[in-house]
Design brief:
8 helices, five-stranded antiparallel sheet, globular, alpha+beta, 18 strands
């Protein structure tokens, strides 16, 4: 299986399966001298880990990270950094009934079509369990980016119900299980998810990530565009089906003058009058906030029976057992934040390499 590595100068390779003994990541290209401990990485993993509320899968993993290499006396050495996370609560027996069946909406069939073999226990490499190590890699990336670049994410829509933007508070998103930035919206989402879970179904969601403090000049024209790499990063997250930068698809409803992000003179460079381009112009950062939204489809693993076929081509009815998220978007913000951090630090190093 190829393509397990992401990035150019700051690169990480993830390994492991959902129901294997452990998962992990090897990070290559991290410069030496940066402070890095397990205690620095762990809070980011805690924000993503399962089993933290009734609104997510009840698989209970501590997601304790172990640094195996690339760090000496709490500082990065420049050597590859290897991080390990053990799987401690896998229940493979939950998947024995679908060993020969293809679950609708999952990668079961296409894995068999490509490789002629698949790990049916929780989806193997296709499982969102793999995203834990992305979050760990993102924590390392944040250390290189420094405190001047701030990355925050929130859930902005579940099903047909968007967040009330007039009530947006970033601190609120960090204080509830749904990563909801609006106290007025939170109870509506909680009731919706309770109803959906009891019905044995699932819902889709949209996650918004904002990076502030990114200087102008990161990215490259044509094939090294910052926003192209951001889109690729977000679309690599399991269940992601759409990405918007800035106004995104909403830009088609704007006129040219509305969408232009006009500029006026400022003390330290231009002052933009809007940010419809999401902080990226011509593939290069403008110095404005970078704004990325990612749409996640409803969880494919649901209790409601669905029509499918098995490996013999026979028609079957499939009911997915096990412990699953009624809305995968609920735990997606820390993952999207991590992928954004990895893209940004990669472009930081590329910019430094070309422009000094």
């Amino acid at each position: 299986m190829s393509h397990n590595t992401f990035g150019k100068l700051f690169r990480f390779t993830s390994w492991g399966e959902s129901h294997g003994p452990a998962i992990g990541v090897v990070i290559d290209g991290c410069p030496p001298g940066y402070l890095l401990t397990e205690d620095i990485i762990q809070p980011f993993l805690n924000a993503r880990k399962p089993g933290t509320s009734r609104h997510v899968t009840q698989r209970r993993e501590d997601d304790k990270v172990k640094i195996l290499s690339g760090v000496f006396e709490n500082r990065t050495t420049g050597a590859p950094i290897s991080l390990l996370i053990e799987n401690t609560d896998a229940r493979s027996r939950d998947y024995s009934d679908i060993a020969e069946q293809y679950r609708p909406g999952h990668a079961d069939y296409v894995y068999d079509a490509k490789y002629g073999f698949r790990d049916y226990r929780g989806g193997g490499r296709a499982s969102a369990r793999e995203t834990a190590v992305r979050v760990a890699a993102g924590a390392v990336a944040r250390q290189i980016l420094g405190d001047e670049i701030r990355i925050a994410g929130a859930l902005v829509q579940i099903g047909e119900y968007p967040v009330e933007r007039s009530d947006w508070r970033w601190e609120e998103a960090a204080n509830n299980a749904l990563c909801c930035p609006s106290a007025a919206t939170l109870p509506k989402w909680e009731a919706l998810l309770d109803e959906t879970r009891k019905a044995g179904s699932s819902l889709g969601a949209i996650v918004e990530i904002v990076a502030s403090g990114v200087p102008a000049g990161w990215g490259a024209p044509v094939y090294g565009k910052l926003d192209a790499d951001l889109a690729s990063a977000m679309m690599s997250i399991p269940a992601a089906k759409g990405v918007e930068i800035g106004a995104g698809f909403g830009a088609v409803r704007l006129s040219g003058e509305q969408n232009a992000d006009e500029m006026r003179k400022g003390e330290n460079g231009p002052v933009f009058l809007s940010n419809n381009n999401g902080g990226v112009l011509g593939g290069i950062s403008s110095g404005q906030d970078i704004v990325v939204r990612t749409a996640f489809k409803p969880t494919s693993s649901i209790l409601t029976p669905g029509q499918s076929i098995n490996r013999k081509g026979e028609e079957v009815e499939v009911q997915t057992k096990g412990r699953h998220d009624p809305c995968v978007g609920v735990r997606a913000a820390p993952i999207a934040e991590a992928m954004l951090a990895c893209v940004l630090v990669d472009h930081k190093l590329r910019h430094r390499g070309q422009c000094g």
